[in-house]
Specification:
The protein is globular, with a radius of gyration of 17 Å. The strands form two sheets. The protein has a seven-stranded mixed β-sheet with strand order 3-2-1-4-7-5-8, sandwiched between helices. The protein has a single domain, classed as Spore Coat Polysaccharide Biosynthesis Protein SpsA, Chain A (Alpha-Beta Complex), CATH 3.90.550.10. By secondary structure, the protein is an alpha/beta fold. The chain has helices at about 15-25, 45-50, 70-85, 105-115, 135-155, 170-175, 185-195, 220-240; strands at about 5-10, 30-35, 60, 90-95, 120-125, 130, 165, 200-205, 210. The model has no long low-confidence stretch (mean pLDDT about 95). The longest helix has 18 residues, at about 135-155. It contains eight helices and nine strands. The chain starts with a strand and ends in a 14-residue tail after the last helix. The structure holds guanosine-5'-triphosphate and magnesium ion.
Length: about 250
């Protein structure tokens, strides 16, 4: 049966994982979930290994320590891409474990991939602001970061820092993951920027984003600072070669 792979980086998310995984399977019963865990000291690895779905539809990639969100995604994507040869999936979805990304939205992202999108971005900001429970300064930081990215890179997306996305597996396999340098926010931007520069068909799906109710945010000023200098760095790196324009942008 055809199924999507959901890749989820985790660091100290055990308070959220039982609810998160149940909500994923309730929304998409055939989904397989890969947790990329950075040696969480809260019992996450033991919980996964004792789960009845362990190594059937729940998988664990264990890393030695907190090595960062970006490298966790690179490791998880590489793991899923390598499995394609024996067990191909129909989409690769990335999402946070803290329930900010509602699993009920996953079918909307999958529908876009099924209709031919190469990359689908879940957006909090197209047609209004749909973020609940964030303090005003956190919301302003996110909106400001999005504007900054659009201004520096020229990307037309309404929520370019978001971390809830779906990829066409063949396209993900073509991405030069070894070239990705950033973590945190910057990782989300860098992947979308690479895809956009390569002329991928990228679409957006509106979502409601809810602040985490349990566990602790790993967001830090270091992550914000990294994004501030990485964005012009990636724009400069990209400008070395011309951007490939997708068919619909080309003049007749
Ligand atoms: N494996 C791994 N996962 C991480 C790391 N840092 C964050 N995560 C996970 O990445 C996801 C997003 O992290 P959050 O702390 O929610 O960060 P955020 O969503 O950018 O920020 P908030 O809006 O404050 O929640 C969660 O599932 C985290 O557990 C890391 O260094 N390694
Ligand atoms: Mg979060």
């Amino acid at each position: 049966m055809s199924f999507p792979f959901i890749v989820v980086p985790t660091y100290h998310e055990l308070d959220n994982l039982p609810t998160f995984t149940e909500r994923v399977w309730s929304a998409v019963p055939e989904a397989k979930v890969l947790l990329v865990d950075d040696a969480s000291g809260d019992g996450t690895p033991a919980w996964v290994k004792a789960h009845p779905r362990y190594n059937q539809s729940l998988f664990l990639l264990e890393r030695a320590g907190k090595l960062g969100l970006g490298s966790a995604y690179v490791a998880g994507f590489t793991w899923v891409v390598e499995r394609q040869a024996t067990e191909p999936c129909n989409a690769v979805v990335q999402m946070d474990a803290d329930l900010s990304h509602d699993p009920k939205a996953v079918p909307d992202l999958l529908a876009e991939i099924a209709s031919g999108a190469d990359l689908v971005l879940a957006t909090r900001y197209r047609g209004g602001v749909r973020v609940t429970n964030w303090p005003l300064q956190r919301l302003l930081l996110s909106l400001g970061a999005g504007q900054y990215v659009k201004w520096i890179t020229g990307m037309p997306f309404s929520d370019p820092t978001g971390g809830f996305k779906a990829f066409c597996p063949e396209k993900l396999a073509s991405l030069d993951l070894a070239h990705i340098r950033s973590d945190g926010y910057a990782f989300q931007i860098e992947v979308t920027h690479m895809a956009w520069r390569q002329g991928w068909k990228i679409t957006e799906v509106p979502i409601v984003f809810e602040d985490r109710q349990a566990g602790v945010s790993k967001m830090s000023w270091r992550i914000v600072r990294e994004a501030v200098w990485r964005v012009p760095w990636m724009a400069l790196r990209g400008s070395v070669s011309p951007r490939i324009r997708p068919e619909k942008e080309k003049k007749p």
